[in-house]
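Figure 6 in text form: structure in, sequence out.
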């Protein structure tokens, strides 16, 4: 079916674009409310689990120690979870909201930063945490297969192993493939923009973008077949150091005091506006629907489309940790890192814009990061570092996705066949290339469209995962033992 979509897109690009555009309009108008409600519901559910009696339940056998060191664990989940996105939108999103405020808001730096944090902190990682917790608990605590469908056993019983379970896993597979392909497309757009900024090319053609996807697809396939412990861990640790160096470079040479002031301002505005931002739907005003499809609903769909692969990957690397430790590691730590990242890059860009640098008019979203670096010393070196970072994020994220898709199609095995991994890796790269080829100058819109469409069915699956996980935890041996103790003392 995926190959058929690729052939359709190549053979009848105009028809492909018009059909997917019509489906997108329907999803945003008819299902936008579901994305909005579900995303906030996931935040409440995951935080409640961590704070409740279920928080001490281990994702493994009693007394089992974590498989990876905490630093490597955080580096791997962060690199796989949103690496390319942070590079792509680190400057572009805060600056976009600053120049063109969200409908119904007063605008300004505070609104721009709070809106960015809304899209990149608790809501995003709660979506990942739901899938990660469900699979990690079922796999390592209950001894089930590492499949999304296996997490439905408490809710569906043996039917989760039949046709219904197959449908659930196929939906997870499609969401993963198209969500990952969109991310690869974003990475290719940014690397292409880097070629333009450095002067290596006058214009990054669509053919160049497809070539970038092809080269990096080969690289991440090679990484994927090397295994998690070697490939992804090594790449993630390198990237964490490079990203830290880049952030410190902008922080020290950029408007340091402005950035420091922006951190508490952003936190306060995010906390005060959270309820209003969480409730924004197409009914908010005439311009709200279009804005939501470009920003909030796109993000919720993007996180949901990444949830099967990031969730399964988080489960794979989180064995031996408690539910409470998992939630703190998966939700709080990346949210704080996102705050610092956007304060540094978004804050520096907004400050430069206020001083007349004109970064917002630098061109496309992916070019605005390079526009910011151009206002600082050593811009050429920093630009090359960004391109290397995006390339490694591309490889490590797609690497994890290929392994997860291999697991989904090989009955949940933790070590899928190498040729299966290569097959899914190649197909993901092919879809990314297709979306860039058919999208042309509107490639970003094409990537966003396919992401939202692929994620729409999986949001229903995720709601079911919450119900199933709760039923499972109620019957956990630790909870049952506590219940017996209460009965004896009572």
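Output sequence:
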């Amino acid at each position: 079916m995926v190959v058929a979509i690729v052939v359709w897109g190549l053979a009848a690009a105009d028809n492909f674009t018009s059909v997917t555009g019509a489906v997108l309009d329907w999803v945003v108008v008819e299902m936008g409310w579901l994305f909005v409600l579900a995303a906030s519901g996931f935040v409440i559910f995951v935080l409640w689990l961590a704070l409740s009696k279920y928080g001490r339940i281990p994702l493994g056998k009693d007394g089992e120690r974590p498989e990876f060191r905490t630093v490597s664990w955080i580096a791997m989940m962060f690199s796989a979870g949103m690496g390319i996105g942070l590079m792509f939108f680190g400057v572009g999103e805060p600056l976009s909201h600053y120049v063109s405020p969200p409908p119904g808001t007063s605008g300004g730096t505070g609104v721009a930063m709070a809106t960015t944090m809304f899209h990149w902190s608790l809501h995003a990682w709660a979506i990942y945490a739901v899938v990660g917790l469900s699979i990690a608990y079922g796999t390592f605590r209950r001894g089930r297969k590492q499949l999304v469908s296996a997490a439905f056993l408490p809710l569906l019983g043996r039917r989760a192993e039949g046709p219904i379970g197959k449908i659930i896993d196929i939906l997870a597979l499609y969401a993963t493939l198209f969500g990952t392909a969109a991310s690869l497309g974003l990475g290719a757009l940014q690397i292409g923009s880097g070629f333009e900024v450095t002067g290596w090319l006058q214009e990054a053609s669509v053919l160049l973008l497809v070539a970038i996807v092809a080269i990096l697809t080969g690289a991440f396939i090679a990484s994927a077949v090397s295994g998690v412990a070697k490939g992804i861990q090594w790449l993630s640790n390198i990237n964490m150091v490079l990203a830290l160096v880049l952030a410190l470079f902008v922080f020290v040479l950029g408007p340091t005091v402005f950035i420091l002031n922006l951190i508490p301002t952003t936190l306060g505005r995010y906390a005060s506006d959270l309820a209003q931002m969480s409730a924004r739907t197409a009914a908010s005003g005439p311009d709200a629907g279009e804005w939501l499809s470009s920003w909030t609903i796109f993000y919720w769909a993007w996180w949901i489309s990444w949830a099967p692969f990031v969730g399964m990957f988080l489960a794979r690397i989180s064995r031996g940790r408690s539910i409470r430790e998992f939630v703190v590691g998966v939700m709080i730590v990346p949210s704080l890192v996102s705050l610092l990242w956007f304060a540094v890059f978004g804050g520096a860009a907004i400050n430069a814009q206020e001083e007349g640098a004109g970064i917002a008019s630098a061109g496309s979203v992916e070019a605005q990061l390079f526009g910011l670096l151009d206002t600082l010393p050593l811009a050429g070196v920093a630009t090359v570092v960004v391109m290397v970072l995006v390339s490694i994020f591309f490889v490590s994220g797609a690497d994890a996705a290929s392994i997860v898709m291999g697991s989904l199609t090989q009955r949940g095995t933790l070590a899928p066949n190498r040729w299966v991994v290569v097959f899914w890796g190649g197909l993901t790269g092919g879809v990314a290339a297709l979306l860039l080829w058919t999208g042309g100058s509107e490639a970003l819109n094409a990537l966003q469209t396919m992401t939202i469409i692929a994620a729409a069915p999986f949001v229903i699956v995720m709601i079911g995962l919450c119900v199933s996980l709760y039923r499972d935890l109620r019957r956990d041996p630790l909870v049952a033992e506590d219940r017996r103790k209460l009965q004896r003392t009572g």
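Caption detail: The chain has a mean pLDDT of 84.
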